[in-house]
Amino acid sequence: YFVALQRVNPNTAVDWEFQGGDVARHVPDREFKYVFWAFGPAIRTFEMCPPVISVDGTHLCGHYKRKLLVVVAQTANKRLLPVAYALVDEESTGSRSFFLRNLRRYVVFDKQICVLSDRDVGLRSAIESLPDWQEPAAYHRICLRHLRSNVVTRSKKIRDWCWELGSQLSKQKFRQTKQRLQEFNSDAYNYLFNIPLNQWTLYRDEKRRWGTLTTNMSESYNNVLKGVRFLPCRALVEATFKKLWICFDKNKTSPADAGVPLLICTMSHFCSWSKLPHLTRWNVRSTTDR
């Protein structure tokens, strides 16, 4: 089935890792341990997307008790793009390393990339074991929503401050909120500020996140896949192909078709800003800055 997909979808990448079997002992039977795939259209589209990905995994519920790893990106119009998948036996450092190696080899290439995730120890170990997934080739950032949920508190004020610290761009406002949190709850303050600031705050992010604070894109796509978790492996692969086709079909409207000169997402921001009393016009110019 994968061979057929590769034949009709150029640049589709597939890689296998097997276990079992011993030719010397005349035990030829073996089964796949991991399989990675990324469809050609998704690979080509990802080249034009912001270099930010969210990595997540989900359990399969059918006869084959495996895990499905997924990488999801966003287009410039904030539309979900499922980039790559892997079926693995478990979510371990080994399976994640297999996934990331193939993601770099077939999808990311030599592109600098930002990886968003929760504080997953296995993923962090895999990243640390792969030189081409370390800075400056790749930057690991923490999902702000997961981080906020790890701050054990019943105080809504602390949760709000945590979010404000992570999403704040102003140096002055960041320091003000930091001081309020330190005075109000030293435990929450110590927990947050023992984590490197560039991993969870926009203020010190160096524009690696491209403004993306959470892993909502991969978790939202996992909800899309909820109905296919009971399928056998081949049917699951086919379902991921159909889901990708649906994504492309829904998002095929171009700015020209929409009657606007810019990306739809960008144009919506301009329209909202134009309603502000102090802003009556804007200038648009090309730039190669990040």
Q: What is this structure, in a nutshell?
A:
This protein has 290 residues and is of the alpha/beta class. It has 12 helices and 7 strands.
Observed structural traits:
single chain; 290 residues; alpha/beta; Nucleotidyltransferase, domain 5; seven-stranded mixed β-sheet; 12 helices; 17% strand
Summarize the structure in words.
The chain is of the alpha/beta class. The protein folds into three domains: 181 residues, Ribonuclease H-like superfamily/Ribonuclease H (Nucleotidyltransferase, domain 5); 59 residues, no CATH class; 36 residues, no CATH class. The chain contains twelve helices and seven strands. The chain has a seven-stranded mixed sheet, with helices on both faces. A hairpin with a 7-residue loop joins strand 3 and strand 4. Helix 3 packs across helix 4. 29% of the residues are buried.
Mean pLDDT: 84
- The first-level CATH class of the largest domain is given as Alpha Beta
Biggest sheet record: 7 strands, mixed
Tell me the strand order in the biggest sheet.
1-2-5-4-3-6-7
Percent of residues in beta strands: 15-25%
**How far is the N terminus from the C terminus?**
40 Å
How many structurally independent domains? 3
The low-confidence parts are none
How many β-strand stretches?
7
Classification by helices and strands:
alpha/beta
Number of helices: 12
SSE string = HEEHEEEHEHEHHHHHHHH
Question: Helical percent range?
Answer: 40-55%
Instruction: Choose one word for the global shape.
Output: globular
CATH architecture of the largest domain: 2-Layer Sandwich
